[in-house]
Backbone:
């Protein structure tokens, strides 16, 4: 089983982290939109608790993914124009930045509300700060903006993958579906 990445593509660990983070990001967006539309009450509170818990799982996986990428390096770029490589890189970094900002502001939003982060009712991370209304409002807005920026970036990312699969007919999409051995 090939866990590590190669210059030609990704190993199973990168692939698993990519798809777990992608799935959780989609879930968290849908879940966040659901409780945002509900009046305060038990249903909204239950959805928010799930959002917080799964958001902390996503944060841990994102940190693991970033650490793994830093340690492994990046596989070779696709054989395409410099402009398309620049666009692909910008979209990938935009996605990373948006997801990281959503994670950080999610944590700060709860803590600036003077509350602990409760993870599945099993672990509570106490707030290191007192309630701060101004910071709470700022983090809430930043969390919403970064979360909504993820959607167009994911669409561009998927369109790029489809371009590689359907137009270029190269190995780029398949690198994120199965490990690529060293070329």
Residues:
């Amino acid at each position: 089983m090939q866990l590590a990445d190669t210059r030609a593509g990704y190993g199973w660990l990168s692939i698993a982290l990519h798809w777990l983070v992608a799935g959780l990001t989609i879930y968290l967006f849908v879940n966040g939109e659901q409780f945002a539309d509900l009046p305060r009450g038990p249903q909204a509170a239950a959805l928010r608790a799930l959002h917080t818990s799964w958001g902390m799982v996503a944060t841990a996986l994102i940190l693991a993914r970033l650490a793994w990428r830093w340690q492994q390096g990046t596989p070779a770029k696709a054989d395409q124009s410099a402009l398309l490589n620049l666009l692909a890189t910008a979209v990938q970094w935009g996605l990373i930045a948006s997801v990281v900002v959503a994670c950080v502001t999610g944590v700060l939003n709860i803590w600036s509300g003077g509350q602990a982060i409760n993870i599945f009712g099993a672990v509570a991370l106490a707030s290191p700060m007192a309630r701060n209304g101004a910071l709470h409002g700022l983090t809430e807005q930043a969390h919403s903006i970064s979360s909504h920026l993820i959607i167009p970036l994911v669409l561009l990312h998927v369109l790029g993958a489809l371009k590689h699969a359907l137009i270029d007919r190269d190995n780029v999409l398949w690198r994120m579906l199965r490990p690529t051995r060293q070329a």
